[in-house]
Amino acid sequence: MTADTGRWIRNFVDGRFVDPDERSSFTKVDPATGAVHARVHEADEPLVDRAVAAARRALDDGWARTPVRERAALLRRAADRIEERFEEFVAAEIADTGKPVTQARELDVARAVANFRTFADVVAAAGQESFLTDLAGGRQALNYAVRKPLGVVAVIVPWNLPLLLLTWKIAPALACGNAVVVKPSEETPSTATLLAEVLAEAGLPAGVYNVVHGFGGGSAGEYVTSHPGIDGVTFTGSSATGSHVMKTVAPRVRPVSFELGGKNAAVVFDDVDIDEALDGLTRSVFTNTGQVCLCTERVYVQRSVFDEIAGGLVERARGLRLGRPLDEATTTGPLISQTHRDKVLHYFDLAEQAGAEVITGGGVPRLGEGLDGGSWIEPTLWTGLTNSDRVVREEIFGPVAALIPFDTEAEAISLANDTDYGLAASVWTNDLRRGHRVAQSMNVGMAWVNTWFLRDLRSPFGGVGLSGIGREGGESSLHFYTEPTNVCVQL
Ligand code: NAD
pTM value? Predict the structure, then answer.
């Protein structure tokens, strides 16, 4: 069984790849060059029906009742198989996204392996709640909650860290005994498809993992989320789409887990170790060309070190190396598509209209070497903006940040929390007490002190406000992917 027939990327339903249909397909472009690298079979509504039915059958045929230790062992085998086929996954991720090979290896594919191993451990170690209830007359009752799989889960994921974000959901969903219908982003169909092979090789029964390709509204995304056979939706993507999906599932009152957009702040105090802060800020603004939901787009800097931080960040931004993804020296890839670049460039215009000073970047680079058809953009920093400017309020999702000065701790907290989003924040200071105090006062799901995107996969991940609903990670994932039945026994 192979995922690719020539340059076709196929749907995977009920344990088999579905033969492609020329009439309903779309092309997938390599964002580094602009060249078409594959044709993707778009799933129609009947195929989504088949995927949901196959998932239900797999549950009923026994997957939902598989012993936990068997499911954990299967997850570990999947992790081993990804490691064995590591470079295939790296190549597939690069072909879809144009991201640098070093990042694909060290972040995207490495984290996919870690996701499977972590959730194998988490599910194997999980206990269950029980309470002894005192009753009148000295008798007692025993209450215990049995956790059952949620059922058929729709998994809708974006394009920025495709395999990482997919496995972040698939691993706990399968660990808990669910069957899934996955709709990868139309921009990144490859690794979800390759994962179908790996999971089958690891021994996952047919129908437990299904992949349907396509777009959102009027396509596979909508067919899956509106399907009456779906028991819940786990979604990572933009806040606008999340809101739409919520409306879609509302009539049938299905649970949702939403990991949505961000407009994340960094707060830099003047007691900080400047070089360490600059290294961390550079990562937090520019990793994956700024296309990580956790990326910093607002940098608040205490006034006395503002110029030094601004100058240091400009220097580091100019030191980033845009180039061929397979060149190990490349640090920064293209944006995902020309459409997304148009969106980011629109914010460049808005920044200019708002009177920003562009302290580095601000345009489209000319890279030559066959890369000029790609969706490249310059790492860009602005000063002179305020929290009332759209550029500082709306998620841009590019390698960009606005640098804004502050004077006091209270002002910094108020500026950082002045947003409709609430995903992540980072605080940079050598004062330990202040680090804890400010991090705890951030109105976000995740706050880091003197670091960024350092994850323990057992800890909760998610956001508040426009950034999402619910938490995944460790036990939080087990809670979303299961439903408890409380049993009360009078003793
Ligand atoms: P998007 O919302 O456009 O698309 C996400 C997924 O939803 C895609 O698979 C898409 O095809 C699908 N979709 C679109 N419309 C749909 C509809 N009507 N019904 C069902 N499915 C639909 O997001 P994107 O551009 O792919 O990703 C970037 C966004 O994702 C950013 O906002 C980013 O912050 C967010 N994100 C959040 C996290 C997090 O953990 N909080 C992580 C990564 C990305």
Answer: 0.96
